[in-house]
Amino acid sequence: MSKTHVSTQINGDSYEFLCNTQQTLLDILRHELDLTGSKEGCSTGDCGACSVMMEDRLVCACLVLGVEANGKEIETIEGLSSGSSLDPLQQKFIDLAALQCGICTPGVLVAAKALLAKNKNPSEEEVRFWLAGNLCRCTGYDKIVRAVLEIAAEARNT
Amino acid sequence: MDYVAPKTAMEASEALVQDGAFALAGGTDLLVKLKTKFISPNIVVDIKQVPKITSIEESMDGWWIGAATPCAEIVEHESLCQDWPGVVEALSLIGSTQIQGRATLGGNLCNASPAADSVPALIAANGTCVISGQTGEREEPIENIVISPGATVLAKGEFILGFKLPKPPSGSGDAYLRLIPRSEMDIAVVGVGTSVSVDKNKKITSIRISLGAIAPTQVILDGLEDIFIGKEPDEDSINKLVSLAESACRPIKDKRGTIEYRTKIAGVLAKRTLNIAYERATNH
Q1: Number of Cβ pairs closer than 8 Å across A and B?
Q2: Which of A19, A60, A125 to mutate to test the interface with B (most CBs of B within 10 A)?
Q3: Mutate which: B75, B97, B187, vs A, most A CBs within 10 A
Q4: DSSP assignment of B22-81
Q5: What is the mean pLDDT of chain B?
């Protein structure tokens, strides 16, 4: 079994690694590159805890092979803050207590950022549809949706 | 398990001929099957770098949708959405936002599930697919591809390169509806795709309806021409359509619905999709 050499950009930084075919992008992020912000929930694309951006598309890292990342640009939750200052969306989640155990939170944040990049003025229904692939087993959906709507409103007013 | 990402259709076919080779497009079914050990490939052939396989093109002849184009990209294509709103509705129902970023029409067809959302809509739209193999390309109607749950007519080394949809004549409309037990992210209990064209007097000139999840493979309703051609839909013809749809059902019974329920819903969705498609056709 041969390993494939992969070079990729993650959060703007260049990474190179050797990859077995069966390793998913999530396996690579967490176990090879120590980027453990993306979480493993179901590992079958149902829960969204491993949401990342690949070539500006929201995807589940558990449903992407590591070898497929070759030549691609990936963005993970680690790229959301700049240094120690949180993204406004992260701060809003804290302010509104839009997280409980926190396992779903990185995926929710990445997915919500993707929505706001595409739609600056989403309705509550649009937020709920967009985030339907991010499961929160603490079931704190309402605060998550409110945080996304509030940050969208604030961004429009500044 | 090896991995290759061939740059041409011929190299892809040569790789796929090998024992234990599986094609990888969006991976939303393949990776789940890998993890559950439902399949154990010797080699994964990533077909996404093959020319034309991720492109959407409009020409005089109609539409080309590359088999490995992610659904999210298709949904963003405005003029395709205008020409085939029902097809786009159908494929936009496949999975979550994350799944839409990867899932493909080629994968939805070749996974060969009776409940595949895009397939009844593509059949109703008179779509064909271009199959690439070692001896070149061939074109097949979409309804010829799936032969039983999980099985297709594709020979060793063959893969779907893309889909062709006709340019709809003016006065055309299509629609797709499915019923699921929850509001989002579930597998169709029944799915129905309908496509109609009308003349300037709003009389139906062509009609095609395909049902999913009510038999081992997608079903095309026979006998619609006698009921609808040259007429506007009325209570009598709609009642005949409902009976026709119900009698086409040979569904399984599972946790999502009984045989009686699926049969009843098939009639209801046939009626509703016809109403939507007819409305769209008369405004097109």
Answers
A1: 85
A2: A60
A3: B97
A4: EEESS-TTHHHHHHTTS---SEEEEGGGSTTTT-EEEETTEEEEETT-BHHHHHT-HHHH
A5: 96
Task: Decide if B27 and A63 are in contact by the 8 Å CB cutoff.
Answer: yes
Q: Residue B186's closest chain A neighbor by CA?
A: A46
Q: Using CA coordinates, name the residue in chain A closest to B39.
A: A22
Of B31, B32, B97, the CB nearest to A130: B97
Tokens of A111: 């997915």
pLDDT at residue B255, as a whole number: 84
CATH of B172-282, one of 3.30.450.20, 3.40.50.1400, 3.60.70.12, 3.30.390.50: 3.30.390.50
What is the value of pTM for the model shown?
0.95
Residues in B 147-186 with any Cβ partner in A closer than 8 A: 184-185
What is the ipTM metric for this complex?
0.95
CATH number belonging to domain A88-156? 1.10.150.120
Confidence of residue A1 (pLDDT cuts 50, 70, 90): low
Looking at residue A88, what is its pLDDT? Answer: 95
Q: Is B46 close to A111, i.e. CB distance below 8 A?
A: no
**pLDDT for A105-148, tens place per residue?**
999 999 999 999 999 999 999 999 999 999 999 988 999 999 99
Three-state secondary-structure class, residue A55:
coil
Q: What is the mean pLDDT of residues B15-43?
A: 96
Work out the burial of residue A74: count CB atoms within 10 Å of its CB; fewer than 13 is exposed, 13-18 middle, 19 or more buried: buried
